[in-house]
Design goal:
Elements: E1 11-17, H1 27-38, E2 42-49, H2 53-65, E3 71-75, H3 86-93, E4 96-97, H4 99-113, E5 123-127, E6 130-135, H5 139-153, H6 172-176
Parallel strand pairs: 1-2, 1-3, 3-6
Antiparallel strand pairs: 4-5, 5-6
Length: 177
C-alpha cells in the first residue's frame, strides 16, 4: 500500500541578472515568481543585479547563508556573449554541480526551440545546503525549466525521487566535523 506524501512548501529566492531591466520590466523573474506561487511555494527574496560576476556570486553566497532560503533560481546571463557571466558566478559558489540539470534543460528546450538550445548554458548546483539554478533570461526558457523540471523536483510528492527529500542530507559532511 502506497502512502501519499504531503506537500512541503520550499522557500525560493529569484535573482534576475540584467544590465537593463527593472523590477516592473522583469518578465522572466515574474514568470518564475508566478509559477512558484502557483505550485504552493513561497518567495523568500527577489533581486535584480547587473551582469557582474562578483556581484552575482556575492548575492548567491548571501542567500545560501540565509537559513530561510532553500533554493535560488537566477534568470539571465547564461548565453555566450562577453557579458554572460551568471554560469561562472554560480560555479564560483557551487560545492557540487548537478550536471544532469543542464542536460535535461537542453532536452526540454530542444522540444521548443530545436537546435538553438545549444546556445544556453543552464546549470544547477548545491552550496551550503541550498539548491542553485541558473536559467536563461527569456520568459519561455523560465517556463520550460519550471514546467519541465523544477515543478517536479521541488515537489516532495514527486516519485521516484526529488530534490526536497534530500534537503536534510545536503549538509551531511559539515555536520560530521
Amino acid at each position: 500500500m502506497s502512502v501519499e506524501r504531503e506537500f512541503i512548501a520550499v522557500r525560493i529566492a529569484v535573482l534576475t541578472v540584467s544590465d537593463s531591466r527593472s523590477l516592473d520590466q522583469d518578465k522572466s523573474g515574474q514568470t518564475l515568481v508566478d509559477r512558484l506561487f502557483d505550485a504552493g511555494h513561497s518567495l523568500a527574496a527577489r533581486a535584480i543585479l547587473p551582469d557582474e560576476r562578483s556581484e552575482i556570486a556575492d548575492q548567491l553566497r548571501t542567500w545560501c547563508a540565509d537559513p530561510l532560503i532553500d533554493v535560488v533560481i537566477s534568470t539571465g546571463g547564461t548565453g555566450l556573449t562577453g557579458r554572460d557571466v551568471t554560469v561562472e558566478a554560480h560555479r564560483d559558489v557551487y560545492e557540487k554541480e548537478i550536471d544532469a540539470f543542464g542536460t535535461v534543460f537542453t532536452h526540454v528546450s530542444m522540444a521548443k526551440i530545436g537546435t538553438s538550445a545549444v546556445q544556453s548554458r543552464a546549470t544547477g548546483g548545491v552550496a551550503h545546503g541550498t539548491y542553485l539554478f541558473a536559467l536563461p533570461g527569456s520568459p519561455g526558457a523560465c517556463r520550460d525549466a519550471w514546467d519541465g523540471i523544477l515543478v517536479h523536483q521541488l515537489d516532495y510528492r514527486h516519485k521516484p525521487c526529488n530534490f526536497v527529500e534530500i534537503f536534510p542530507r545536503l549538509t551531511e559532511k559539515q555536520r560530521r566535523k
